[in-house]
Amino acid sequence: MTTIAIPPGMPQYDDVPGYDVAAVRADFPILGREINGHPLVYLDSANTSHKPRQVLDVLREHYERHNANVSRSVHTLGTEATEAYEAARGRVAAFVNAPSVDEVVFTKNSTEAINIVAYAFSNASLRADADPRFRLGPGDEIVISEMEHHSNIVPWQLLAERTGATLRWFPVTEQGRLDESGLTDLVNERTKIVSLVHMSNILGTINATARITARVREVGALLLLDCSQSVPHMPIDVVDLDADFIVFTGHKMCGPTGIGVLWGRAELLAAMPPVLGGGSMIETVTMGGSTFAAPPARFEAGTPPIAEAVALGAAVDYLTGLGMRAIQWHEKQLTAYALDALGSVPGLRIFGPEVPVGRGGTISFALGDVHPHDVGQVLDSRGVQVRVGHHCARPVCTRFGVPAMTRASFYLYTTTEEIDALVAGLEQVRKVFG
Amino acid sequence: MQLDTLYQEIILDHYKHPHGRGLRDAADPADQVGEAHHVNPTCGDEVTIRVATDGDVLHDVSYDGMGCSISQASASVLHELLTGRNMAEAFEVHTAFVTLVSGRGQVAPDEDVLGDGVAFEGVARYPARVKCALLPWMAFKDAAARAGVGASPTEVKA
């Protein structure tokens, strides 16, 4: 056996950051629950994560102490609420290393964030004086991939229908990686936007985007990355990532539901026409017409999810406190453990990368020909919560020739014992349906 | 909850050894034939039901599908219970099955009417699985209507 020494001065394995998982679990009240007489084994964090007490406390305290509407009141509570809301924006901006806090638009979720960009294209396409980068018509092309969540497929299909543009996509390889072999043909001078998932919610694949970004720059298109599954699990730096837009959602990163984020380059957000019209997004309104506020307010019409945004700020603090590198490393260890453990289950087929490289802690699989619904039901009877179905990524199921998959997904609080419980549960599934 | 209230032996038997599976042409070319394909969009389960009838008697209920044990066993039970019945009886059984499965565990099944269908009593207690059990039965209703033998409207409280 060869030992590979890491040269002095480089980060050593011992330097890998860590944290006490048992202590972290104590922060999450729901993890103390029993399900069907068994301790809860929650392996569905890619669907939604649990919330630590630190986040729940902030949510409650906001309503108990600082509740008021934002950006419109001179009174004390209104000022406090506005300050808390804007401070949360600052935390989120810092979390993804956004060059400016004004590049963070609060939305309802990732889906809404993608739709804002898609509808900005749509609205710009109706105006001859709009920024040409956002104008679409017949002959123009939109590029997505076969591994997208429905939320990154349907808005573009609808946009293509409205504008006459053509929708194209990257295929997926048998190993569950993005097939970039047709990159130069697929992304060409007709391409206006490329919208790709950063980490697949079904295959767990983390897409290396550098080659694609280079091509996108070469042809002058825009790049949106759906980071719903990556921002919660690894350090994300929008400057390093070199995308034009990223979207993510609060509830998958220890925050509440109802709050998501669209990050966009300031210059691009400024060039985008508004999507939802209403209060807060205007500059002046007359009966004859209106002018619009600068971003991010331009894209936040109406009373926003204030308490949810504030609690998302608390979630960001919580994650930063543990350290995103530590979380990423914890999940990498779990993923390696789980791939090994699942590989030992007879008849189990993993969809997506089978090595813990270029992938996150979300593993979809089939157990013989037992239907995922039945797998999930037996596991639930033992307290193990997994997701079953098409995971809002039906084209991926079609690609691999199955109607549905079973998915186990991990987070910062997941333990190897929970993966053992999954494997033991799968043994029982085999007994019931064998 | 006890797993075997859901996965009763009868259900697993029908799943592993389905009765009358496969889409068949009508034996009597004079029969009215109707077919319906239903999908459960949340899980991707699919079933196709084909009905052949002279307007009075259900000569055949054939089916094909892909899905979980509950939906596929339910199709097998549907075939077994309804084939050869006259239409009025068939719809009576249909109503009894739908009532049982939508009953949230509060409906006592009548074995004389439902036969192996009584095994689905447990499914009624798993709200997430009610649609699986109903999938073939809803497809049957549409197939029957397409064969020209309309069903009386059924309330589904799923």
UniProtKB/TrEMBL annotation, chain A:
Query: Looking at the record's lineage, which domain of life comes first?
Result: Bacteria
Which reactions is this enzyme annotated as catalysing?
A: (sulfur carrier)-H + L-cysteine = (sulfur carrier)-SH + L-alanine
Q: What is its EC number?
A: 2.8.1.7
Transferase as UniProt keyword: yes
A biological process term (GO) from this entry: cysteine metabolic process
Cofactor(s) recorded in Swiss-Prot or TrEMBL: pyridoxal 5'-phosphate
Q: Which CDD domains match?
A: SufS_like (cd06453)
GO MF annotation: an example: cysteine desulfurase activity
> Is the Lyase keyword given for this protein?
no
A Pfam family of the record is Aminotran_5
InterPro entries given in the database record: Aminotrans_V_dom, Cys_dSase_SufS, PyrdxlP-dep_Trfase, PyrdxlP-dep_Trfase_major, PyrdxlP-dep_Trfase_small
Q: Which UniProt keywords apply?
A: Pyridoxal phosphate, Transferase
Sequence intervals crossing the membrane: none
Family recorded in the similarity comment: Belongs to the class-V pyridoxal-phosphate-dependent aminotransferase family. Csd subfamily.
- Name-wise, this protein is cysteine desulfurase
Source organism (scientific name): Micromonospora endophytica
TrEMBL record, chain B:
* InterPro entries per the UniProt record, alphabetical: NIF_FeS_clus_asmbl_NifU_N
Species annotation: Micromonospora endophytica
**Highest taxon of the lineage:** Bacteria
Record-level GO BP terms: iron-sulfur cluster assembly
Q: Which GO terms describe its molecular function?
A: iron ion binding; iron-sulfur cluster binding
Name the UniProt record assigns to this protein:
SUF system NifU family Fe-S cluster assembly protein
